[in-house]
Amino acid sequence: MEILGILDTLESVIIDSPRLPFTKKLVVDEDKVLKIIDKLRTVISSGGESPLGRGGRRLNAAEETTDSADSERRPQPENKAVEVIEQAYQMAKEIREGADKYADEVLANLEATSARILRTIKAGRERLSKTVPAKAEK
Questions:
Q1: How far is CA 29 from CA 34, 38, 136, in A?
Q2: Distance CA 115, CA 123 (A)
Q3: Strand, coil or helix: what is 122?
Q4: What is the pLDDT of residues 40-54, one digit of tens each?
Q5: 3-class secondary-structure state, position 25
Q6: Is the pLDDT confidence value at 24 over 70?
Q7: Is the predicted pLDDT of residue 63 greater than 60, yes or no?
Q8: Spatial separation of the C-alpha atoms in residues 29 and 14, rounded to whole Å
Q9: Of residues 109, 89, 97, 86, the one with CA closest to residue 25
Q10: What pLDDT was estimated at residue 48?
Q11: Residues 76, 3: contact at Cβ < 8 Å?
């Protein structure tokens, strides 16, 4: 079924995404995931299959009736697809939040290091300014 192929593609994008260091979060290409989700929506809204049957031939009325009766007995793939899409959005949100938190931690560390270096520079310049005039007077 076409939906399963699209879900496999989504899964492979997620599995192949690089991980953020020291977290269980991934960096996912947002455009790729959104395109896959749009494709999934298109397939779901068109009924999951094209008017052609599984073998590439047009379904006749009896086959369509049989397919619709079978689909009524089976769980609706649309419900599962909507659930998968919602999970994908939730996962993307968590990844963005994790990336933001990681970036904030890195910037805070950089800020602390820069402040420490600036204090060292100021102390060194202050020490130099005290010793240079003393030598000039001798």
A1: 9, 14, 63
A2: 12
A3: helix
A4: 888 888 875 544 444
A5: coil
A6: yes
A7: no
A8: 9
A9: 97
A10: 54
A11: no
